[in-house]
Amino acid sequence: MSKSVNKVILLGRAGKDPSVHILRTGTIVNLSLATSERYKDNHGEWQERTEWHNLVGYQRTGEILRDYVRKGSLLYIEGTLRTRS
Predict the structure, then answer these.
(1) pTM exceeding 0.85
(2) Is 35 exposed, middle or buried (0-12, 13-18, 19+ CB in 10 A)?
(3) Would you list the DSSP string of 16-46?
(4) Backbone phi, then psi, for 55, in 5-degree steps?
(5) Strands 46-58 and 26-40
(6) Please, which of 29, 34, 47, 74 could form a disulfide with 57 given CB 3.0 to 4.6 Å?
């Protein structure tokens, strides 16, 4: 049996206020998170690259995001990575 790990850790800022959806099954929250990386280019100049991540929080996690996160909030996120189109 092969073992695998699906864990992601992100540190970044919320790009906008969370989008909240209340369903019969619970709260779902969508949030965009910007992470940035600084690096030196070939000319020795500092550059910054920003990646945008679309996050989804369900149930209690969604409620916490809804109640405490606003645009610009600094967030430390641990979770699993799922790719969808």
Answers:
(1) no
(2) middle
(3) SPPEEEEETTEEEEEEEEEEEEEEE-TTS-E
(4) -110, 150
(5) antiparallel
(6) 29
